[in-house]
Amino acid sequence: MPRLCYKPNSQKDKGYAWFISVASFLSNFTHTGFSYGIAGNLTIAHQQFFNINLQNGSLAGSIHFGALLMLGEQLSKNAAS
Questions:
Q1: CA dihedral sign of residues 40, 46, 48, 54
Q2: Domain definitions of the chain by residue range
Q3: What angle do helix axes 41-50 and 17-39 make, rounded to 10 degrees?
Q4: H helix runs in the chain, sequence order
Q5: Could you give the CA distance from residue 57 to residue 53 in angstroms, rounded to a whole number?
Q6: Where does the source fall among the domains of life (predicted)?
Q7: How many whole angstroms separate alpha carbon 72 and alpha carbon 62?
């Protein structure tokens, strides 16, 4: 009868998997918070400070969030190789 579960090769991990997971979580947490902060509350502050309309005020958050979504797949492929 063949084995259904194999012991993972622990030579590849070397104990850095938890560090990578925590760093990835913190990175996503801060980027998402920044994107929604710029698109929400900070848009009003940008409008008043720079004397611009709503569309120009929300442009920074929109570009940031769009770049994350467009480049995410390619960057993850490069990191995996």
A1: negative
A2: 20-80
A3: 50
A4: 17-39, 41-50, 54-57, 59-80
A5: 6
A6: Eukaryota
A7: 15
pTM of the model: 0.49
Q: Measuring CA to CA, how many Å separate 66 from each of 19, 35, 41?
A: 27, 9, 19
Report CA Rg, the chain: 20
Chain position carrying tokens 């084995």: 3
Please state, in angstroms and rounded to a whole number, the distance separating the CA atoms of residues 28 and 65: 11
pLDDT digits (tens, 9 = 90+) for 8-55: 666 666 777 788 888 888 888 887 777 776 666 777 777 888 898 888
- The label of the residue with tokens 């009868």 reads 1
Structure tokens at 7: 């012991």
Asked whether the beta carbons of 38 and 64 are under 8 A apart, the reply is yes
CB of 29 closer than 8 Å to CB of 66? no
